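Review session, final week

We close the course with one last complete record, chosen because it touches almost every idea we covered. It is D-alanyl-D-alanine carboxypeptidase-like core domain-containing protein, a protein from Denitratisoma oestradiolicum with 178 residues. Go through it on your own first, then we will talk.
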Amino acid sequence: MAADLQQLIPEFSLQVEALLQRCNTEGLPMRPFFTLRSPFEQARLWRQSRSREQIQAQLTMLRARGAPFLAYCIESVGPQHGNPVTNALPGLSWHQWGEAVDCFWLLDGKAEWSATRKLGGGNGYRAYAAAAQDLGLTPGGLWPRLKDWPHVQWRSAGSPLKQYGWKEIDAEMERRFG
């Protein structure tokens, strides 16, 4: 799965290109597989492994805080099954804002997902995270909880809620994706 870096905001896209070039130069190539993600796709990922009670509690909270479109995103995707992959509700991932990218390590022509496997003493994800940090980006692999080695984002704020209210996020997501 290839991702289009042009879906990212221009400033971040340039930094991601520099990041990928640096990883290639180090012999640890990374390939983007996710850039812009709709709030509906985010809802699918978030709903994985969540109980009905957890889902209902979040729907109630979203509606109470003036975010009916985000609640609709969660309801409309229906039940999802799988391992937990995100704690971010729709609208709360920088992917929905064009400010995050997920990349995999390309090893022997295949996607390598291990953050511990080494090639020539190095691991692609750890080199990617270090290079991202050097460029002023925020790598998910260095987060204190729920490490997300493929993820890099433009902002240091963990969530759009650090900068916007629920109503603003809801309105922007509906404008972009509704």
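Two points worth writing down before the exam:
The longest helix spans residues 10-25.
Helices lie at 10-25, 39-47, 52-64, 68-76, 124-134, 166-177.
Good luck, everyone.
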